[in-house]
Amino acid sequence: MLSLMRPYRLRIAVALVMFALKDLPVWLLPVITAAIIDDLVHHGSSARVLLLGAVGLVALLSNYPTSMTFVRLSSRIFRQIAAELRVATVSELQTLSIGFHTRTSASVIQSKLVRDVENVEFMLSTGLPAFAGGIGILIGAVTVTAVQVPAFVAIFALVIPVSALIVSAGRRASRSLNERFRRDVEELSGAVGEVAALMPVTRAHGLEAVAEQRIADSSHRLRASGRRLDHMQGRFNVSSWISYQTLGLVCLVLAAIAALNRVIPITPGQVVLLSTYFGMLTGAVVQLLGLAPLFTKGIESIRSLGELFAEPDREHNEGKRAVASVTGELAFEDVSYRYPGSAAHAIDRLTLHVAAGETIAFVGTSGSGKSTMLNLALGFVRPQGGRILLDGSDIETLDLRTVRRHVAVVPQESVLLDGSVRENVVYGLGEVPDDVVAHALREANAEEFVAALADGWNTRVGDRGSALSGGQRQRLAIARAIVRDPRILLLDEATSALDNESESLVREAMRRLNRGRTVLIVAHRLSTVRNADRIVVLERGRIVEQGGHEELLAANGAYSRLYADVVA
Ligand SMILES: Nc1ncnc2c1ncn2[C@@H]1O[C@H](COP(=O)(O)OP(=O)(O)OP(=O)(O)O)[C@@H](O)[C@H]1O
Ligand SMILES: [Mg+2]
Questions:
Q1: Ligand 1 test: best mutation among 101, 105, 337, 370, most atoms within 8 Å of CB?
Q2: CA-CA 20 to 30 A from 476: which of 108, 267, 418, 444?
Q3: pTM of the predicted model, to two decimals?
């Protein structure tokens, strides 16, 4: 946070000076009021009163330029800092490992980026000036009093023990109630997220009442803890109001008695002045106390963002060798990988050599480690034993971001963004000529259905491609891979069944895509396996068989058993 603010330190200083200047009338007016009252009491001249009035007016009007300068400056600075904080957080997210992102739900990250940054921004833009203002008034009121009626500074000091008493009484209750409330808010937003995500499942099984009950329970808990918080805050506000007003009254009475009995030389005007300043002083204290929740929230949000910056699980690419081109030869040498918290190895001392341009189909039962092989090849997970070589170099020594420019991935469930067909195909590539996009769509067997859409390739595909069928989404994902013209292709074949026609369209598209590249494919379809150069059969993270389709069938081993299941 400090390093984000550092470039603006000069502007922040100017903003704070403007802030102090804009409060000038607040100081000056009680002094002017006191002077006018004393003039009145001592039958002074109207001219002097007019002059005092004019000075007051000038001070009041000067508030406009100083206030506006402050608002402009501070809004620019703090909005800018919030924007930079979001950008910094996103670039931090890009360095965190995929493992971190699989563990962390998207809604948590979203809430950090949107809500936490907003809290920090609010703390800076509203809390900081209010804090500075409160402190300024405190200092100003005490200083002017010390100059005018030094004896009363001691009475002003009474505010400190009274505040300490109120704060300590309120704090413990406030902290636990605030925390309870925040947890209930989180609980509710979690429940809402889940209910929204499960909507189709809920509706399909007629469980509407269960979902409603879930939200109702959370809402009622939130209502209860909200009311407790309201009552506590009410008690706090009322008792501090009564205490400070009482102190103010005491101050006025003492000042009046001092004036009447001439214990301290004090004029009627000064009695008003003291009373006004005392009111300002207590007002400032109340304001400062009221800022505590805002700061607690802001600091908690900084901590929440800090979690990302302190996360150790990240991908280190800086300073590693960038690759300009890739031939696509891959070698797994004695590679082992175990997921954190898992007892068994997902990949167990596996050795496999893939020649450039070769198509390897991984087959095996569910959980045998097929997807993990793709994640290892992509560098999403790092082997705990052995090494993975790309064109003869250990991928640990390479800048994976540059490697991945030559890799395309078609995941098991195609991930589409809520944009047009074209945007989905060229995602992240910048300017791509129309004929290249058209070619990719044609190769992916997507040309026909895209042309039939209302707006052609400018049609939006809906949230995560919800406006498209499963087979159409897969073909767009294939077009996305084709347009990248990768050297290495990683394909996790969708398990969802497609009808015969879309199945054959997807298959054809995949065959075109595989041409001339190194392909690692997790195969669920017989047709895919038949087209592969080599089939690798995995079992509990080990290779149990490999070879061509006919060859493996003839061997009558693990593959033929799997095959029998598929065919049956
Ligand atoms: N994020 C994870 N955390 C812990 N264990 C995991 C994780 N992902 C996978 N595993 C485990 O690692 C093993 C291999 O998983 P993998 O996803 O590679 O299987 P798969 O062959 O792709 O299965 P499927 O055909 O069902 O997709 C499984 O036993 C699985 O339970
Ligand atoms: Mg899998």
A1: 370
A2: 108
A3: 0.67
